[in-house]
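Thread: sanity check for a docking pose with zinc ion

Original post by kr_44:
Hi all, I'm comparing my docking run against an independent structure prediction. Below are the sequence and the ligand SMILES. Could someone generate the full complex and paste the structure tokens? I mainly care about where the ligand ends up relative to the chain.
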Amino acid sequence: LSCPINRTDRGRKTYPDTVVDRAHASGVNKLICVGCDLEDSKLAIDYVAKHDQTWASIGIHPHEAKHFSEDLAKQEKFRALTGSLKVVAIGECGLDYYYNHSDKADQIKVLEIQLQLAEDSNLPVIFHVREALDDFWPIFDNFTSIKGVLHSYTDNLANLEQGLKRGLHFGVNGIATFTKKEDQLAVYKQIPTSNLLLETDAPFLTPIPYRGTINEPSKVEIIARFIAECRGEDLTSLAHATSSNACKLFGI
Ligand SMILES: [Zn+2]
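Reply from moderator J.T.:
Ran it for you. Here is the predicted complex with zinc ion included:
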């Protein structure tokens, strides 16, 4: 198993080394540590420099877009990070119209900056798009040959089709274990195995039965078991397939 999404623990700003050990012990061999703003992305890069079998993604989350859209110095520093060792993706980036912590215009601008960067640096993208896919598709389509994953996918079947048409992957996490929405589980069953990734979204979205505790990469095993059962698939084949998808997408 690999863990495509593992955000740094921004609350604590510390990264216990034992997280990686526990992940490896649970069969999660490769981890991507995901940045959500400039500082967070630097922390991800520092963290993965110290740990084998870990890689970094650098991104400006839509929540943070207002602090980035007009700051040219910050944009320049961010751009420079693409050249850092073990950076394998751009993201989280995208649009979040559920929380709207930044104006839509700022969110769109910062998404476009990162899509351009992904194209220039030939890196895949980890997208965070919540209640905003109608606006997202035309922006995405202005760029060519962008590969990536819609992380924490909780949207509908129609948008699953839209994403598949564009060759995107879909990240499924602990939400699957605690959602009360039957149609959500139905969507998870429709994601082709070739486009499926498993993620933790650590430190958030801890799967059942560990709700209320900090999520971490070792928990991706629980998600794998749940999804395999939900889809009626063999756990080992699902684990191999999703790991191989992640390795190919991120080149790890
Ligand atoms: Zn996210």
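The mean pLDDT is 92. Hope that helps with the comparison, let us know if your pose agrees.
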